[in-house]
Each structure stands twice: as structure tokens, then as C-alpha cells.
Amino acid sequence: MKIKLEEAAKIVDGNIVGDKNITISSFAKIEEAQPGDLTFLYLDSYKKFFPSTKASAILVKPDFPKSRNDITYIEVESPNKAFSKLLNHYFKHDYKLSGIDPSAFIHSEAMVGENTAIGKNVVVSSGCKIGSNVKIFHNAVLLENVEVGDNSVIFQNVSIREECRIGKNVIIHANSVIGSDGFGYDIDENKIFHKIPQIGIVIIEDDVEIGSNVSIDRASLGATIIKKGVKIDNLVQIAHNVVIGENSIIAGQAGVAGSSKIGKHCYLLGQVGVSGHLEVTDNVILHPQAGISKSITKPGNYFGSPAKEIKDAFKLEAHYRNLPDYVERIKQLEKLVKELQEKLGNK
């Protein structure tokens, strides 16, 4: 790959400071960059790598000190977004799969759109409707009446249970399960659990990306719904009848219990747990390991278990850290009080 730096700068509306005529051959992290690489810098914690980076060019904010003359700078307002834009421009997503492998089973009553690719040992059951330009990788299984929209990608070993509906431009990574039975049981007078039939479905709307080893349970009645633009990281559990609002993000090892509803533009960060039958309003950020035990009706940042608004949570956290000191001070105060009582008692 040979990219003229001027060309790259135009794509991101950047201003070049230094040698405009250099050519870039690759992209790299600042701490790993070599001659010929373009890198970027936007977090203060990475500034320590700037004196030693071997990159030929770097995306920086306009006010960044240009202390080195052996590197060319591209000034942009947001270096990380500019870097992402360049990656998207020069490295189009192209998942390599074409044609229909002879080992795939496609039921005679299934419909498959134009230019759809199906890999080895894939099962497409009766009544399935697969759109155009879809890619279904090896060993994926689609049970009866599954629908998959145009331009979606289903990676290897994904299982999609009967009746579930997948929208357009959806990506589902390896080993995820869509539409497994919800965790629904009834307990009798002898404390024996009896399975409740889970007769609903899962609906995944357009432009959703689901990581690997994600489980999204079918609804007991109705639908579990992942709305448009949602991004789900690896190892996430979404229980039956949950609704995840548009353009929300759920990070690794988070879990949402049954019938809870998450609003639009919410961030559930690593290992967040949401109890069942709750509602989280729009524009909420749940910080790592937050435990949500009651509904959240106010937008903002929440932390802790049980979760609190972050300013209150941090105050409490500071007090927790100081508990040993508080204990010692209380002991000293108790000693002083006792001494005073003894003095007063002797008078």
C-alpha cells in the first residue's frame, strides 16, 4: 500500500505541518509505529510514546507541540476519529466468502437472495428467507422460518432459532446464539421447577453488530428486541423479553435480566448487571460493574452496586477507602471521651 500523505490529509480535512511529499505504507499504534507508518495521538496517557515513536506521520490536535522535526504532523480536531475515517476509507470490510458450498443444506422451501454466500455445513431450514448479499459462514444453523436481511454477515457456528428475525446490515460473530429459550420456570409446592414454554421470538433490527459468544434469549411471549444500531460486545447475556434501545452499546460480560428495557444511546460498560423488570431511560452511562437494582429515570452517569449517580458513588468510595483511618480516629476520640469522663467523675 502506498498512500500520498496529501491525499490522506484531504480525506480528514487536515492541515499538514512538515514534509507534504512523504508516502505512507501502513497504519500503526504510536508505540509500535515504524518508518512509513501513520499513527495518531489523542489521549494524554499516550504522549509518553511520542518522543520515541518511529512513525513518519502523526495525526494530532492543532495545539499539539511540534517538538520533533523528523516527523510530519496532520492537524485535525479529533485525531482518533480522523484515524478511524482513514481506516474505513482504505480498508473496506470484505469478509471473504463466495458461492454456496456443496456441503450446505438449504431446504427446498427456503428463499435465498442474489449474491448470497453460504459456507461449509451450513443449515438453512424450511421457510427461511435470506436476503441479497448475505454471507453465512461455516457450520451456522438457521432453524425454521428465520429471516435475514440484505447485506448481513453471520459468522461460523452461529445458531439462530426458529422464527427469529434479523435485519439488514447486521453482523453476528462466531458462536453466538440467537433465540435460545428464555430462563423461565414455575416452582410447585414441592419446590420442583417446571419449564415454562418460551413461545416468543427475537427481533434484531438493522445495523446491529453482535460479538462472539453472545446469548440473546427468545421471549416467553412477544419478542426480545435489539433495536437499530445497537452494538453488543463479546460474552453478553440478554434475557427474554428485554428491549435494547437504538444506538446503545453493551460491553463485555454485561447482562440484562428478563423484561428489562434499556433506552436509546445508553452505554452498559463491562460487567454491568441489570435486574429484571426494570427500565433504564435514554442517555444513561452505566460504568463497569454497576449493579442496577431499581429503574433509572434520570439521564447521567451511574456507578457502584447498587448503582448511584456517579458523584455520590465516588464520595462513598472515598469514604470506604478512608475507613481504617476513621476507625483509628474514632478509637482516639473514644479514649479522649473516657479520659474526660474519668476526670469529671473524680471531681
- Strands across the major sheet, in which order? 10-13-16-19-24-27-30-33-36-38-39
What is the share of helical residues?
Answer: 10-25%
Tell me the CATH architecture of the largest domain.
3 Solenoid
The portion of residues forming beta strands comes to 25-35%
Indicate the mean pLDDT.
96
Top-tier CATH class of the largest domain:
Mainly Beta
Number of domains in the coordinates? 2
CATH topology of the largest domain: UDP N-Acetylglucosamine Acyltransferase, domain 1
The overall strand count is: 39
- Give the biggest beta sheet: 11 strands, mixed
Structure description:
- This protein has 347 residues and is an alpha/beta fold.
- The protein folds into 2 domains: 3-90, 3-Layer(aba) Sandwich (Udp-n-acetylmuramoylalanyl-d-glutamate--2,6- Diaminopimelate Ligase, Chain: A, domain 1); 105-311, 3 Solenoid (UDP N-Acetylglucosamine Acyltransferase, domain 1).
- The chain contains 4 helices and 39 strands.
- Strand 21 and strand 22 form a beta hairpin.
- It is flat, with a radius of gyration of 28 Å.
Write a brief caption for the model.
With 347 residues, the protein is of the alpha/beta class. The protein folds into two domains: 88 residues, Udp-n-acetylmuramoylalanyl-d-glutamate--2,6- Diaminopimelate Ligase, Chain: A, domain 1 (3-Layer(aba) Sandwich), CATH 3.40.1390.10; 207 residues, UDP N-Acetylglucosamine Acyltransferase, domain 1. The protein has four helices and 39 strands.
